[in-house]
Model the fold of this input.
Amino acid sequence: MTLPMALHTVAAMINNQQDCIDILIGTTGNLIIKVFSVHGQFIKTVQKTMQDSEGKLSVSLAGLSSGNYVANVFKDSLFLHSVRFNKN
Done:
């Protein structure tokens, strides 16, 4: 049995002026962003229901130390994309 594969557009950019990472997502539904240090330490989870398939989800970086991080993007329990970023 072959399961259909859903393709979703995910892009991210650091917004230093607002101290956040903006994740652009080309899908709707329940989205979960899990942020980890590059050493695997769990930092935070952000959840949002996207109504628009060209939506933007902003994740605050306030309180994070300078360094490298990974944001894993999920739709419900389906992994979509991993984004590495550096906070200055």
